[in-house]
Amino acid sequence: MVLDLSQNFLTGEIPFQFGKLKMLEVLQLSHNMLSGSIPSFKEMISLLSIDVSYNLLEGPLPDNKAFLNASPKGFANNKGLCGEVQSLQPCNSTPTSHGDRKKDNKYTVIIILCFVGVSFLLCASVVIFFVLRGRKTIVENVVQEIHNQDLFSIWNYDGKNTYEGIIEATENFDDNFCIGEGGYGKSLFFLFTKLAYTMRVIEKCDVYSFGVVALEVIMGVHPGDLLSSLSTLEAKGVLLKDILDQRLPPPTDQEMKEVVLTVAIALACLCSDPQSRPTMYHVSQKLSTTRDLLPEPRHTISFSELMDLEI
Questions:
Q1: Per-residue confidence at 184, pLDDT binned at 50, 70, 90?
Q2: In b/e form, how buried is each residue of 67-78, taking b as 16+ CB within 10 angstroms?
Q3: How many whole angstroms separate alpha carbon 177 and alpha carbon 145?
Q4: How far apart are CA 46 and CA 186, in angstroms?
Q5: Would you tell me how many other CB atoms lie within 10 Å of the CB of residue 51?
Q6: 18 φ, ψ to 5°?
Q7: Please, which pLDDT band fits residue 40 given cuts at 50, 70 and 90?
Q8: Which end of the chain has the lower number of beta carbons within 10 A, N or C?
Q9: Is the separation of the CB atoms in 266 and 210 below 8 Å?
Q10: d(C-alpha 60, C-alpha 40), whole Å
Q11: pLDDT (tens digit, 9 = 90+) per residue, 256-274?
Q12: What is the full DSSP assignment across 250-269?
């Protein structure tokens, strides 16, 4: 017995009532629009051949010898049939559906976003670390510069300008300006106009430096404190013998003449008015010739007397 319903544009599911056709041997349902799964057809004990190709069927094939022995062409072009038939996927396999692929893509996007976020936070942390470190270094440098500027303020004028000027004059303490190195660091030589109380570079600028060096030789230490108080009455009352290098024996009368002459010339070179200072030529001439114009050396001679001498 044969039942051929092919090419009839049938829709819906295959009626389970077909299973009651126990004498049916051939069932043709191809080229329709049937959907859903195929009924078990367990009671169709006489069924030998079945063709459900070109439909919208899905799901597993019934455990029936007609289906197990059927040609693969009888199940071709369906939505998703599975079973132990050639050209069909086994039902125990888990084919990746569109939803699964979409879900996997979602997880992939989440993982990528997490990785990008962590990388961004790491980079931001590194940048912030170096920015804060750079600011800390700048602050430390500023504090050090302020400290250095305060040190230069002991000379009774703007220490900030002095410090900046020294950096500029020595090209940031370049070794080319180094003239010696001792236990307290390096000694730098430079012409600094602000130190000479003038904003213009004139021939009297180097005279001031000579006065500082001359006093340092006589005193054995840098005359920084003395320089800042030369114009005060207290400094003018200082005795010459009190500033001499105490590490050396007291000078003889002849040596005292030389000391008095040198200190008098040094004080003239340190005059606050640059125009009132002698020239280096004048200093050289006085050091080599003028000795009889000075009073007799006395250990009680004061700075005030030395500053009043005509050099």
A1: very low
A2: beebeeebbbeb
A3: 20
A4: 117
A5: 20
A6: -60, -25
A7: confident
A8: N
A9: yes
A10: 10
A11: 888 888 888 888 888 888 8
A12: PP-HHHHHHHHHHHHHHHHH
- Side chain identity at residue 126, one-letter code: V
DSSP classification of residue 226: H
Measured CA angle at 300 (ends 296, 302), to 5 deg: 95
Q: Given a cut of 70, is residue 170 above it in pLDDT?
A: no
CA distance 189 to 175: 10
The size of the chain, in residues, is 311
* Nearest residue to 75 via CA among 95, 92, 93, 50: 50
Pairwise CA distance, residues 25 & 259, whole Å = 143
Instruction: Name the residue with tokens 């080599």.
Output: 288
Phi-psi region of 112 (alpha: psi -120 to 50; beta: other; left: phi over 0): alpha
CA–CA dist 228, 126 (Å, integer): 50
**pLDDT tens-place string over residues 198-228:** 445 455 557 888 888 998 998 898 887 787 7
